[in-house]
């Protein structure tokens, strides 16, 4: 029966995998499983742990069952948007502890259950917009989502936000609330979220907007309000709140306002002193600019530095007032963008009060030359550095240049997509102009009207057949989409770095265009021609040099000299000779392990059992365990009256003895040559001693040493001489 059970499980698994392959061929043996737009009305079985991304969007799934996703434990992204999901089993997502993105938007969910999200500890992005729920429940459905980064909720039926609905959510990069028909907001509901970088809310009710602003003053950095119908607000947007506030940017999109409501809003926004940028995109103003300028002026200066007005519709824009009385509100403004809003003039009196403005963008408006004289009158825009007048109705390049020459600090000018059609031989420009965009202006040629101070010039998409201007400072030249048949000469533009000549009619190149320089006359360095080859050769050479140094160092005992230097430096830090009270041994014995039988069984017994006994220091017995060998050797030599070397052929070849000689060489022989006692177990020539032990070789050539006699009758004399040497 067990075999039968295993067989049935295998058959079931194979059957499910076959069903998955049939339902969604893209799922076969892939981590990314794309089953979108396949007409599925259920989640296909056979999902395994290897799948990390599952896309089931745009199907007809109505219900998510407990077992549907049970095996997909490594899912990181689950896309279920645009189905017909109306019910989800409470434990359907229980196994998805690694899930980071869940999209349930545009379905038919009539309520949200906290149990759905209870085990989604890794979830960062949750999309729930476009369903049928009217509220988020009595409590928070998101309380367990501690890693949540972006949240999108709401739908056309969404009408209530309650206190506690966002409990557990502390930090969000993006919060989007579709509250188009929101009618009830309990004060303090959004205060639970400590920090929101960007909050978007679709909202019509102006009163709820004011309540939400009061709640998010200290949490939201960028507040974007869409589809609002601004009413005349009487209460303060701040009320009892105290700064510092967090809101820095406020955006109105698809909003509707009147002169009265806009005028009042300008006054109220001044209380939020943290706001530095205001945007109005695709908005509509019903009025003619009849604002309460006295109330606006009396409420103090504005702290806003950037204003962007994009595609704002004003029904009777030609009747719009000149905003007389708003002068005090624009002194601190640094950037002003008014595009696609049918602006045809700025009153000279107002323009002169933009004293701090650095950037002005009037792209896609109705500016004409005779009104430009008023807009850029004498002393207007005194600090302006960048001006964009592209896509207007300017006709005269000579007049345009004359008017902008009144801007003493102007560096960058864009007058592209104006139909100039002609270009004079000379023009008057600002003295510091370095960037000029004349693309798509229908000019047939370039003349000395172009200012010689330019570093960047764009004359693309014109009717130019040649370019021969002398521009000594020019670095970038854009000639795309013209009628050029030859390249511009190189001599008149000696500092050119970037040249764009795409979509022209180039068919020949002359010597003069390249100052007569031939390719053969250009000598590039080896690095410029073969950079990778040179780098490879350098790496090989460095490797060879290191290899040679290692070989030479090994052959000539460089490591030994380094060790000796270190030992010598350590020894120099210590006293020249230990005080008598610190002398623990009569002799430190240095010997080869191959000679240990003679040393330990004959010499040690003879000396340590003598009367009086000698105290000997042996590395096997007396070295401190765990202590560095250098310190053990130096300390043992310093605490010994003599150092006794038992020399033999084994000693000379022994690594251990070599280290003892290495680390004791300087201190032993530099301080007192009489401290060394040499015992020869067998005949040995001094020349067999390594040359680097020069002082040891010298001592063997100049001092008497004791030889171990093989005859027993002579050994007694050897011991007496050795004991006498140890006592001296």
Automatic annotation (TrEMBL):
<dbReference type="GO" id="GO:0004888">
    <property type="term" value="F:transmembrane signaling receptor activity"/>
</dbReference>
<keyword id="KW-0325">Glycoprotein</keyword>
<dbReference type="InterPro" id="IPR032675">
    <property type="entry name" value="LRR_dom_sf"/>
</dbReference>
<keyword id="KW-0433">Leucine-rich repeat</keyword>
<dbReference type="GO" id="GO:0005886">
    <property type="term" value="C:plasma membrane"/>
</dbReference>
<keyword id="KW-0391">Immunity</keyword>
<feature type="transmembrane region" description="Helical">
    <location>
        <begin position="533"/>
        <end position="554"/>
    </location>
</feature>
<dbReference type="InterPro" id="IPR003591">
    <property type="entry name" value="Leu-rich_rpt_typical-subtyp"/>
</dbReference>
<dbReference type="GO" id="GO:0002224">
    <property type="term" value="P:toll-like receptor signaling pathway"/>
</dbReference>
<feature type="disulfide bond">
    <location>
        <begin position="27"/>
        <end position="33"/>
    </location>
</feature>
<keyword id="KW-0399">Innate immunity</keyword>
<keyword id="KW-1015">Disulfide bond</keyword>
<protein>
    <submittedName>
        <fullName>TLR21 protein</fullName>
    </submittedName>
</protein>
<dbReference type="Pfam" id="PF01582">
    <property type="entry name" value="TIR"/>
</dbReference>
<dbReference type="Pfam" id="PF13855">
    <property type="entry name" value="LRR_8"/>
</dbReference>
<feature type="domain" description="TIR">
    <location>
        <begin position="583"/>
        <end position="726"/>
    </location>
</feature>
<dbReference type="InterPro" id="IPR035897">
    <property type="entry name" value="Toll_tir_struct_dom_sf"/>
</dbReference>
<dbReference type="GO" id="GO:0042497">
    <property type="term" value="F:triacyl lipopeptide binding"/>
</dbReference>
<comment type="similarity">
    <text>Belongs to the Toll-like receptor family.</text>
</comment>
<feature type="disulfide bond">
    <location>
        <begin position="348"/>
        <end position="377"/>
    </location>
</feature>
<dbReference type="InterPro" id="IPR000157">
    <property type="entry name" value="TIR_dom"/>
</dbReference>
<keyword id="KW-1133">Transmembrane helix</keyword>
<dbReference type="GO" id="GO:0006954">
    <property type="term" value="P:inflammatory response"/>
</dbReference>
<feature type="disulfide bond">
    <location>
        <begin position="427"/>
        <end position="449"/>
    </location>
</feature>
<keyword id="KW-0732">Signal</keyword>
<keyword id="KW-0677">Repeat</keyword>
<feature type="signal peptide">
    <location>
        <begin position="1"/>
        <end position="17"/>
    </location>
</feature>
<keyword id="KW-0395">Inflammatory response</keyword>
<keyword id="KW-0472">Membrane</keyword>
<dbReference type="InterPro" id="IPR001611">
    <property type="entry name" value="Leu-rich_rpt"/>
</dbReference>
<dbReference type="InterPro" id="IPR017241">
    <property type="entry name" value="Toll-like_receptor"/>
</dbReference>
<dbReference type="GO" id="GO:0043235">
    <property type="term" value="C:receptor complex"/>
</dbReference>
<keyword id="KW-0675">Receptor</keyword>
<dbReference type="GO" id="GO:0045087">
    <property type="term" value="P:innate immune response"/>
</dbReference>
<keyword id="KW-0812">Transmembrane</keyword>
């Amino acid at each position: 029966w067990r075999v039968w059970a295993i067989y049935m499980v295998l058959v079931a698994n194979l059957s499910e995998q076959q069903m998955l392959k049939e339902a969604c061929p893209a799922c076969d043996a892939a981590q990314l499983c794309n089953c979108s737009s396949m007409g599925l009305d259920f989640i296909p079985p056979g999902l395994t742990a290897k799948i990390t991304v599952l896309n089931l969007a745009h199907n007809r799934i109505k219900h998510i069952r407990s077992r549907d996703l049970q095996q997909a434990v490594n899912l990181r992204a689950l896309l279920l948007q645009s189905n017909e999901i109306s019910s989800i089993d409470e434990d359907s997502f229980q196994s998805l502890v690694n899930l980071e993105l869940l999209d349930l938007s545009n379905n038919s969910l009539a309520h949200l259950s906290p149990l759905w999200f209870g085990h989604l500890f890794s979830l960062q992005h949750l999309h729930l917009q476009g369903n049928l729920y009217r509220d988020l429940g009595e409590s928070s459905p998101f309380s367990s989502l501690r890693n949540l980064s972006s949240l999108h909720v709401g739908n056309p039926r969404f009408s209530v936000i309650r206190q506690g609905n966002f409990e557990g959510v502390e930090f969000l990069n993006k919060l989007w609330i579709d509250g188009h028909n929101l009618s009830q907001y309990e004060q303090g509901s959004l205060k639970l979220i400590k920090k929101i970088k960007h909050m978007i809310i679709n909202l019509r009710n102006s009163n709820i907007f004011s309540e939400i602003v009061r709640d998010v003053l200290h949490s939201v950095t960028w507040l974007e309000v869409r589809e609002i119908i601004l009413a005349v607000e009487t209460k303060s947007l701040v009320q009892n709140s105290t700064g510092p506030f967090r809101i820095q940017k406020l955006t109105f999109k698809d909003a509707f306002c009147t002169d009265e409501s806009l005028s009042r809003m300008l006054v109220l926004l001044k209380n939020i002193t943290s706001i530095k940028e205001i945007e109005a995109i695709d908005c509509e103003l019903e009025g003619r600019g009849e604002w309460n300028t006295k109330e606006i002026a009396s409420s103090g200066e504005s702290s806003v530095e950037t204003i962007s007005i994009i595609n704002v519709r004003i029904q009777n824009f030609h009747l719009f007032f000149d905003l007389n009385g708003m002068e005090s509100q624009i002194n601190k403004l640094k950037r002003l963008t008014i595009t696609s809003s049918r602006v045809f003039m700025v009153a000279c009196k107002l323009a002169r009060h933009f004293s701090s403005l650095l950037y002005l963008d009037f792209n896609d408006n109705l500016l004409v030359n005779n009104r430009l004289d008023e807009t850029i009158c004498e002393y207007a825009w005194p600090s302006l550095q960048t001006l964009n007048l592209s896509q207007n109705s300017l006709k005269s390049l000579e007049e345009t240049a004359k008017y902008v020459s009144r801007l003493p600090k102007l560096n960058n000018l864009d007058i592209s997509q104006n139909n100039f059609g002609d270009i004079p031989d000379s023009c008057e420009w600002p003295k510091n102009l370095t960037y000029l965009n004349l693309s798509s202006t229908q000019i047939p040629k370039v003349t000395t009207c172009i200012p010689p101070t330019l570093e960047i010039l764009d004359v693309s998409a014109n009717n130019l057949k040649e370019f021969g201007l002398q521009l000594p400072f020019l670095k970038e030249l854009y000639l795309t989409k013209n009628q050029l048949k030859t390249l511009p000469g190189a001599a008149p533009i000696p500092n050119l770095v970037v040249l764009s000549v795409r979509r022209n009619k180039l068919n020949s190149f002359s010597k003069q265009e390249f100052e007569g320089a031939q390719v053969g006359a250009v000598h590039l360095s080896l690095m410029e021609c073969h950079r990778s080859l040179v780098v490879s050769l350098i790496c090989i050479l460095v490797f060879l040099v290191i290899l040679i140094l290692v070989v030479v160092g090994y052959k000539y005992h460089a490591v030994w000299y380094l060790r000796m230097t270190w030992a010598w430096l350590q020894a120099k830090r210590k006293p020249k000779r230990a005080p008598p009270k610190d002398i623990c041994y009569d002799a430190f014995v240095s010997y080869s392990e191959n000679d240990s039988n003679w040393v330990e069984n004959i010499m040690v017994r003879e000396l340590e059992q003598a009367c009086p006994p000698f105290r000997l220091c042996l590395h096997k017995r007396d070295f401190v365990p765990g202590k560095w060998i250098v310190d053990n050797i130096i300390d043992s030599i310093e605490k010994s009256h003599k150092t006794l070397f038992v020399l033999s052929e084994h000693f000379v070849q022994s690594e251990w003895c070599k280290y003892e000689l290495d680390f004791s060489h300087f201190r032993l022989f530099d301080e007192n040559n009489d401290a060394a006692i040499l015992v020869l177990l067998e005949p040995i020539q001094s020349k067999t001693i390594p040359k680097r032990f020069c002082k040891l070789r010298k001592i063997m050539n100049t001092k008497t040493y004791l030889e171990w006699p093989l005859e027993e009758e002579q050994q007694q004399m050897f011991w007496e001489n050795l004991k006498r040497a140890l006592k001296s």
